[in-house]
Amino acid sequence: MPERILVVDDDHDIARYVEVNLTLEGYEVHLEHDGEGALATALRLQPDLILLDVMMPRLDGYEVCKRLRHDPRTANASIIMLTAKSLSAEKVLGLTAGADDYIAKPFDPPELVARVASALRRSRQMREVSPLTGLPGNFQISFELDRLISDPTSRFAVVYADLDNFKAYNDHYGFLRGDEAIKTTARVLTQAQSRHPTEPDFTGHIGGDDFVLLTSPDIAPDLCKDIVDSFDAVVATLYDPEDRARGCIAVADRQGKLHSYPLLSISLGVATTGHRRIGSQWEASSIATEMKTLAKRAAGSSFEIDRRRV
Hints:
Layout: E1 4-8, H1 12-24, E2 28-32, H2 35-45, E3 49-53, H3 61-70, E4 78-83, H4 88-97, E5 101-104, H5 109-128, H6 138-149, E6 157-164, H7 166-173, H8 175-194, E7 202-207, E8 210-215, H9 220-234, H10 241-246, E9 248-252, E10 258-262, E11 265-272, H11 281-296, E12 302-305
Parallel strand pairs: 1-2, 1-3, 3-4, 4-5, 11-12
Antiparallel strand pairs: 6-8, 6-11, 7-8, 9-10
């Protein structure tokens, strides 16, 4: 589905000019020519981005921008303000009102298209950032993988990480303590990766207790060992003293029968181009998942790296 853009300008010729250029880029474009019409259409369409002229009848662009930002239905839309003025004071007013960017008229179509694409890209990335860990989500993970896979010369390793016994921990301590365990895991992963800088260098949060790291094939073994050691060094702090001393928790099933679960551990599965080419992100995901399943067969924190050549 194409991204939806609302163009608001009281000059019909400029609005139409912008519409043509953005439509050619594949966007779905809608037009309005005054502030009140812009508000009504924005609330109805809930566009991904709004190109908003400053000087308009009935309501100017600054007031429209403020109202859009205060309505939850449009608060997260990207807003680029268009103006014939290029004074810094005018830009400050627009940004203070809630605009994301500012373009002075007259503008070149390539610049406009580039600004729109950049604003939409930032918006997608922000929507994909995990509110719990602050790490990039599935969209950015997919983008980074595609970027690497599309370059036949790139060498990379995909590390798929998740926690063992997390559901039992969450059931026993509650979701708030579960969230703390996930945030602790995120810190362990990012801090370990910072100690092993390389290219690529990326950590993403799929959701729940699942994470993906991108690194180089040469660094992957040391990085995984660092993660395993670092996680095991902090995991006890996530438990109450009596459970920590016991080395396990007791969780009742639906029939009320108690089951014992060891302390959380982390399992890592690694797909790498160190020995063979990876042709798609689906292949990378499948291999990393297979390796993680092997790692989970071991007691405690562990990792497995795919070393097959075919």
